[in-house]
TrEMBL record, chain A:
This is Cytochrome oxidase subunit III. It comes from Methylobacterium gnaphalii. The chain crosses the membrane at residues 32-52, 72-92, 104-125, 150-177, 197-217. Residues 1-219 form the Heme-copper oxidase subunit III family profile domain. Keywords: Membrane, Transmembrane, Transmembrane helix. GO terms for biological process: aerobic electron transport chain. The keyword Lyase does not apply. The keyword Nucleus does not apply.
UniProtKB/TrEMBL annotation, chain B:
GO terms for molecular function: cytochrome-c oxidase activity; heme binding; metal ion binding. Residues 30-538 form the Cytochrome oxidase subunit I profile domain. It is a multi-pass membrane protein. SUPFAM superfamilies: Cytochrome c oxidase subunit I-like. The chain crosses the membrane at residues 46-67, 87-117, 129-151, 171-198, 210-237, 257-281, 293-314, 326-344, 365-385, 397-423, 435-456, 476-498. PROSITE patterns: COX1, COX1_CUB. InterPro entries: Cyt_c_oxase-like_su1_dom, Cyt_c_oxase-like_su1_sf, Cyt_C_Oxase_1, Cyt_c_Oxase_su1_BS, Cyt_c_oxidase_su1_bac. This is Cytochrome c oxidase subunit 1. Belongs to the heme-copper respiratory oxidase family. The keyword Signal does not apply. It comes from Methylobacterium gnaphalii. It catalyses: 4 Fe(II)-[cytochrome c] + O2 + 8 H(+)(in) = 4 Fe(III)-[cytochrome c] + 2 H2O + 4 H(+)(out).
UniProtKB/TrEMBL annotation, chain C:
It catalyses: 4 Fe(II)-[cytochrome c] + O2 + 8 H(+)(in) = 4 Fe(III)-[cytochrome c] + 2 H2O + 4 H(+)(out). Residues 328-338 have a biased composition (Polar residues). This is cytochrome-c oxidase. It comes from Methylobacterium gnaphalii. It is found in: Membrane. Subunits I and II form the functional core of the enzyme complex. Electrons originating in cytochrome c are transferred via heme a and Cu(A) to the binuclear center formed by heme a3 and Cu(B).
UniProtKB/TrEMBL annotation, chain D:
It is a multi-pass membrane protein. NCBIfam families: caa3_sub_IV. It is found in: Cell membrane. This is Oxidase. The chain crosses the membrane at residues 12-34, 40-62, 69-90. It holds the Pfam family COX4_pro.
Amino acid sequence: MSAVGKLIREPWDELGLSESKAFALQRSGATFGIWVFIASEVLFFGAIFLLYAAMRIEHADAFAAAARETNIVYGTLNTAILLTSGLTASVASRAAEHDGLRRLTLWCLAATAALGLAFLVVKGLEYREDIEKHLVPGPRFALAQAPAQLFFGFYWLSTGVHAIHLSIGIGLVGRLIGKGLRDHEWLVGNAQVEIALLYWGFVDVVWIFLYPALYLAGRAG
Amino acid sequence: MSSGATADATTLANPRELPLELPASYLADGRTLLSWLATTDHKRIAILYAVVITFFFFVGGIAATLVRLELFTPQADLVGSDTYNKLFSLHGIVMVWFFLIPSIPTTMGNFLLPLMIGARDLAFPKLNLVSWYLNLGGGLLTLAAVLAGGIDTGWTFYVPYSTTFSNSFVTLAVLGVLVSGFSTIATGVNFIATVHYLRAPGMTWFRLPLFVWAMYTTSLIFVLATPVLAVTLTLVVAERSFGLPIFDPARGGDPILFQHLFWFYSHPAVYIMVLPAMGVISEVITCYARRRIFGYSFMVYALVAIAMIGFFTWGHHMFTSGMSPYAALVFSFLSFIVAVPSAIKVFNWTATLYRGQIGFESPMLYALGFLGLFTVGGLTGLFLASVPIDVHVQDTYFVVAHFHYIMVGASVSAYFAGLHFWWPKITGRMYPEAWARFAAILMFFGFNLTFFPQFIAGYLGMPRRYHVYPPEFQVWNVLSSAGAAVLAAAYLMPLGYLTWSVFFGSRAPNDPWNASGLEWRTTSPPPRQNFFGNPEVLAQPYNYHPESTPPIKDQPRVPSQGSLT
Amino acid sequence: MGNLIPAFLKPESASVQAAKVDMIFTGLTLISAGIVALVIGLVVTFAIRFRRGSRANRGELPSLVSSEFEIGWTAATLFVFLFIFWWATSIEIGAYSAPKDAMEVHVVAKQWMWKTQSASGAREINELHVPVGAPVRLILTSQDVIHSFYIPAFRLKRDALPYQQTETWFQATKTGSFHLLCTEFCGTDHSRMLGRVIVMEPQDYARWLSAQPERDGLAELGERLFTARGCSGCHDAGSKVHAPSLAGIWGQAVPLEGNRTATVDEAYLRDSILQPKRDVVVGYEPIMPSYEGLLTDGEIQSLVAYIRLGTDKLDLIQSLSLEPSQNICAPGQSSASPRSPAMVPGAPAQTPRP
Amino acid sequence: MSEQRQSPARAIWLRSLVVWAILIALLGLSWLAAYGPFGGWTVAVNFGIAAAQATLVAVLFMRLNEASALVRLAAVCGLFWASILFALTLSDTFSRLANV
């Protein structure tokens, strides 16, 4: 069986199509599938941002005061890290389509995973600082206004959910690296590469919106 | 093979030729437990789902029985208040998330969707298996919550009761529902990709059977509504277990926001339950009326319109909640609009009967019952969409009766209609028709006796979720409880005779109802590969008129029955 | 039209709104019954006439029966449904805002009881007395979870939300005693969270009211001051500071330093506020600062009235004084923005500010 | 590696780097804008920039520009339903606030 043939799964292998056509159709189906899932995720994070919007409208002052307490340096650094990981992910996804770019693909995948880990490390440092500053909602919360606790409830929840998504992304990319190292032909044109990196891109986009929501509110004045 | 009849490629092979050199049926394709638990065959996964949801149907049913038994008298005489609250919560949670929502899509949908469009399997078979495990895992988590001591929030999990005040196992149950939500999303993605990518040659969008359209539109709701439920439940867990305040009113949180998010999912969830039912009914009515569906394209548009507009109407659950009166009017208006496509469907089914050759086999009895019950359920929905009436009957037994007419009267009737209709295809066995008809009729009358009195009790002012109630409502509750006993018997009957038929029923031919769909153009039960050869579709579905062209260019010779061994 | 439904199927109707709801309910029931009869009638007719083997005509459908038919019944249902929407909505809009002169009643729900207080000062638990024919505006809140205030005979229901206020109103048309039920699931004894609304003739109501303990609004003001000026910080039961509780001390004799006693009356309380170190009760340190110049005479009067009533009797009011920011369902405390009179409850309750 | 093999890599890098540079520049702009004198418009500016960044990532990094119409439809569906959720819920929140 050819390299492409090995990658065709049921039921795409029984459509009576030639190998290359079946492979292309399977890839296109998989891409569509992950986009449908991303649409679903848009609703998931949409609901989270809706909560943010409604609560901020109801408690504008408390939210501004609370957002000033987040560490904008960590936040901006992390945004830059994730945007850069988006770059490497995109390059990896395009390079994986070319036969001769296996090394580039692997390096970019590795860089993507590494940047993801760096993000989590920075996030961990930030969490430690937040805990030291008593920014965890509860009786020892640092700010006087009660609704400020809502902001930090949202902060911990949204960053936590995002971190879980990112960790899944790191796992997926790590799996691609492992498979790609073992089997020289596995990466080329494989739908799984594109799927993982599209998911990565979406996690990126979520953070792009979390950044102004969590770090930029209430900075002026 | 020497029979002269085999000269025509499109006819069935002689039954005596059964040991043809053809694949065994999906049931005979592996006999170990592992061959079931690790299967990627959509048909076997459908059976796995059927086992799980049947179990949960009876779990929820037992809870309902105890609730109805308790309500026989106005006083508390069977269980205490906390137990009662846990019973109706269990009933709601199990029936909504572990029976109704997965019921038709994951069993008949899984089994029939690829067969109806001429595909070998769903687009992502492994994902399909993962969905089943997620569904099972969610169910077990919820069951664990019940065994640990139960949950008493009602299926709606309203904050701040669920986050701050309830002393029951909310987190565990909520996690169970959350996990089953992921299962639902995965199923939705799978169905959508399958319909887009794996239709057989000639199976254009407007040749799809309405059941496939129903699965497709249901999947849209799966994918687009369920994530919002996931967020809502995550927030409940975060607030309850990690102390992250989001809805806590003491710190400025807004419980009405929770209700918005909850109903953004849970109203479309009603359409998740009823759209597949509509799909089943369209298949059954056309077959037993021997008539093409009246207004096929309008039926399709109606399905799509219900799935779309169904997302805009959630606020009618919140008219008395303190929501803004302006928003209430907008939601009221949209709720009236969504009733229009439902009405169109009812009229079209009725018109399909006109000039038919109507037979009254048991699936058709269920389908005709569906028509009546769905009409009553839908029209009482208009009462609830009218703000002043809703203010009176919201959270009373009127609402309980209304949604049971839709979810039980319509959806469960359709579930049984479909189960009987496709039973020969799924199991390769015929069920005892007389018993099936008796159960269908008993179910219809038992249902009406159970739930119609609840409309009256509700209008008279009996609130729902009441353990004890003012004595003037007793007569209606006695009627309702009596009906519930009939209904329970009617639900147990199919369990008995269908199980019997699996072992002792006569062998089913490939197309016992002389139906027109692609799923009947293969053996009963079908082989692992679904079809013999590559089906090609030539015409519209519901080809029941003698004058029309044969719909399907048939495959090589098909054995007249699948292998059960 | 209301007469079409037999009496035992009709809940008691005792408010202006109830009559309107019953009218549209009956109308909608008739329309629905017509549609159900039409559908079931057609299904049964077709099922009999076109049963398998009957001799009815099975030919092509007449050309009339085609997409025109579809469009026809789509338009017809849309028209009927929009008509019902218009009808229901016009009733809703017409009845949304309470009349300006409505009597005001505060309702506080908690697990599992209703506490009501009318503007005239009468305070009740699980009961509400109102005069017949007078519009009554309800301002609801909750101390714990969401409850829902439901009087079936008035066709009236409104959720009571924690830390927020909601409003609704009614005008009783019949005297008698009516169920008050909770319809939002609120925990163990949800189904026992019952009460009565007693509608009385105005003169009976006046008599009932005059038999209630006297209220002049001073005590309420005093309670706010008690919190606002920091009295409660030391004198509350849960306080860490060692200060006497003031609950129920009115009229009592208290022991003072040097074997004296004093009766708690207006003069003693006034002295204790302005010159606290003079007559300290035995067992307490003279740690209270003087409020000389910090309270006006009127404010002292209010505090005295509050203590006289009993500091443990008024938590109802306390639960109603919310931070405006936490209160988005409620009409504001002051400076309300202009509203459309058709849609929104009437002018907000002006709470007296210290 | 041969000349032919190098050129696709260079093309890939070149395009992606340009997009990345714009993204980082927008990030800096957003940061600055947060401290800027825009009053109530700061929120709009910040989220506007975020929307621009998200569009760039979705279209060029996640390759919606090359994707089939079906895939674009899926993406648009997500946005459309999210906008319904926002519009109807916030209409309630706003009109409740307006009544305070």
